Amino acid sequence: ALAEAILSLIEAPAMATEMGAQGRARALADFGMERMHERIDSFYCRALNTVQGAPTSREAMQRP
């Protein structure tokens, strides 16, 4: 089945290009720098929230 799928992409380069572009867009949306920053930030905010009196969001943690 895998060999057949590869052959179909070889025979239809436009489809292969489109699939590659869609895969890249999805990877950037799920694992791009901005998304990973949001996920790490969220993790630390949740971890800090377990401490009594700790800020619950990144904005609350920033000091003027």
What would a concise description of this structure say?
78% of the residues lie in helices and 0% in strands. The protein is mostly helical and 64 residues long.
Would you give an account of this structure?
This protein is mostly helical. The radius of gyration is 21 Å and the shape is elongated. About 80% of the residues lie in helices and about 0% in strands. Helix 2 packs parallel to helix 3 (about 35-50). It has helices at about 1-10, 15-30, 35-50, 60. The protein starts with a helix and ends with a helix.
Average per-residue pLDDT, rounded, comes to 84
Strand content range: under 5%
DSSP summary, beta strand count:
0
How many helical elements? 4
Percent range of helical residues: over 70%
Shape: elongated
**How does the helix and strand content classify structurally?**
mainly alpha
Low-confidence stretches: none
One letter per element, helices H and strands E, the order comes to: HHHH
What is the C-alpha radius of gyration, as a whole number of Å?
Answer: 21 Å
N-to-C terminal Cα separation, in Å?
A: 59 Å
Largest sheet: none
Helices, strands, pairings?
Layout: H1 2-11, H2 13-31, H3 33-49, H4 58-61
Helix pairs in contact: 2-3
